[in-house]
Write a structure and sequence with these properties.
GO molecular function, one term: DNA binding
Protein name: GntR family transcriptional regulator
CATH topology of the largest domain: Chorismate lyase
Oligomer: single chain
Strand order of the largest sheet: 4-5-6-9-8-7
Keywords: DNA-binding, Transcription, Transcription regulation
Organism: Lentzea aerocolonigenes
CATH architecture of the largest domain: 3-Layer(aba) Sandwich
Distance between the termini: 71 Å
Number of helices: 6
Number of strands: 10
Largest sheet: 6 strands, antiparallel
Length: 251
């Protein structure tokens, strides 16, 4: 057990690192940490010091407070990948067991036919699914799919990876997509499906994907905001000024 000592490093910073190790290595997500009083007595610090250390870890997302219940180790957040890959393969790569509940599947008229290259009188397949990992609901997705590339999709088993199904049954390999992300709060139906409270934060992704230039999928996915985050690598490169950009006038 680590101790807090007098020295140049503030006591709240020392306690914060002790609690960080506890959160990252010793306790499982959802486990309670000792109370303010217990921490103060154990490490010989004031409750103000404890409050400062715990508050910083709550702000970082490592701990979470539940009113009237205490402070707990926060659930681990998954980084949403920026690759054109399936939920199934993503979860397996993380060592988790994916599963899917097909909520509905049928034919309908999408609000935006342009995304799938449909004529005014054409239908598309509408598929709504709940995605889980190790039994926990992580995402609700509702997608429209091209009847041209995926005929009779509504007769297929849709409880696994759609991308694997597309490749195996139709010879369709999605190779390009445009994805938009925004934030929402969960309405009553989405909250019930994802086992969160109404009004909980969600990360929403809309992906329009194609295969060899032919539009195939227009899907919106609602991910639990308490379990997911997005990490991006940024640099200072200005568009059109990189090492491969053209120099001089046009020819």
């Amino acid at each position: 057990m680590h101790e807090i000592v007098d020295g140049p490093k503030p006591k709240h910073a020392q306690l914060r690192e002790i609690l960080r190790r506890l959160a990252e290595h010793d306790l499982a997500p959802g486990s309670p940490i000792p109370s303010e009083r217990d921490l103060a007595e154990r490490y010989g610090v004031s409750r103000i010091t404890v409050r400062a250390a715990v508050g910083q870890l709550v702000a970082e997302g490592l701990l979470t407070r539940a009113k009237g219940r205490g402070t707990f180790i926060a659930q681990r957040r998954y980084d949403l990948q920026h690759l054109l890959a399936s939920f199934t393969s993503d979860m397996k790569a993380r060592g988790l067991e994916p599963s899917t509940e097909v909520i509905s599947c049928g034919q309908g008229t999408p609000g935006s036919k342009a995304s799938l290259g449909l004529d005014a009188d054409e239908y598309a397949y509408r598929v709504v699914r709940l995605r889980r990992a190790d039994g926990a609901p992580l995402a609700l997705e509702a997608g429209w799919y091209s009847p041209h590339l995926l005929p009779e999709l509504d007769r297929c088993d849709l409880s696994g990876s759609l991308y694997e199904l597309f490749a195996a049954k139709y010879g369709v390999q999605l190779d390009e997509a445009r994805q938009t992300v925004w934030a929402e709060t969960a309405d009553a139906d989405t909250a019930k499906a994802l086992d969160v409270r109404k009004g909980s934060p969600l990360l929403v992704f809309r992906r329009v994907a194609s295969a060899q230039g032919r539009p195939c999928e227009d899907v919106t996915s609602w991910y639990r905001g308490d379990l997911y985050q997005v990490t991006m690598k940024l640099d200072r490169t200005v568009p059109g000024t990189g090492p491969n950009s053209a120099k001089g006038g046009t020819r």
